[in-house]
Amino acid sequence: MDSDFYKNRRTVEKYIQMAKGFDGRDLIQKLKLYLLPHSHVLELGSGPGADFAILRKDFNVIGSDYSTEFLNRLRMRFPKDVFIELDAAKMDTALTFDCIYSNKVLHHLTNEELECSIQRQYEMLSANGIICHSFWKGSGTENFKGMFVNNHTEASLKDFFSHYFNILELSSYKEFETEDSLLYIGSKKKP
Ligand SMILES: C[S@@+](CC[C@H](N)C(=O)[O-])C[C@H]1O[C@@H](n2cnc3c(N)ncnc32)[C@H](O)[C@@H]1O
């Protein structure tokens, strides 16, 4: 569900300041248990690029975001890398990957958008493809600084992903507070 927060220069600057010091290095360490070095990875919602900087050390990664404001900054920061404009709700691209990764992005999607995104991710992945996504843990939806937030539980993530993916890891972790976040790593089911 759309909001201007990530598309407006002033609020993007605010977000970058707020997010300083946070990155997904622990999540990426877990992903590395399942994904071969040099695999082709798509990152959704790269934002300031903290996780992109870590992912690119081990993988052939393409970054993406639906925000031109973030994409302009990412292209300045990583001039030799590839970034595409991509809405995670629609996944409107013909590119294919071994892994699709996101850190705190898919919680901005409604249930219907998440269902559509998951189906497209399945279609975009190679035969042994992997997904790795983090979410805020909780119930219901909320409005945070004008942004739509869809919280999830272990049970809801199982429901959303189980048609297309086998669980490799589904665990709680701490971003700001104990067990406020969920990590889902899954492997593509055989057709
Ligand atoms: C909470 S930030 C996380 C950014 C980055 N992954 C990180 O961990 O710092 C959410 C990011 O997802 C992007 N985003 C939100 N909704 C999106 C959508 N529907 N499609 C693609 N990107 C989206 C925002 O522009 C922003 O960069």
UniProtKB/TrEMBL annotation:
- Source domain of life: Bacteria
Q: Could you tell me which InterPro entries the record lists for this protein? A: Methyltransf_25, SAM-dependent_MTases_sf
**Start and end of every Methyltransferase domain?**
41-129
Q: Does the keyword Flavoprotein apply?
A: no
What SUPFAM superfamilies does the database record attribute to this sequence?
S-adenosyl-L-methionine-dependent methyltransferases
GO biological process per UniProt: methylation
Q: Where are the transmembrane segments?
A: none
Can you name one GO molecular function term for this protein? methyltransferase activity
For this UniProt record, the keywords arranged alphabetically read as follows: Methyltransferase, Transferase
Q: Which Pfam families match?
A: Methyltransf_25
The record, for PANTHER family, names: TRANS-ACONITATE 2-METHYLTRANSFERASE, TRANS-ACONITATE 2-METHYLTRANSFERASE-RELATED
- The protein depicted here goes by the name Methyltransferase domain-containing protein
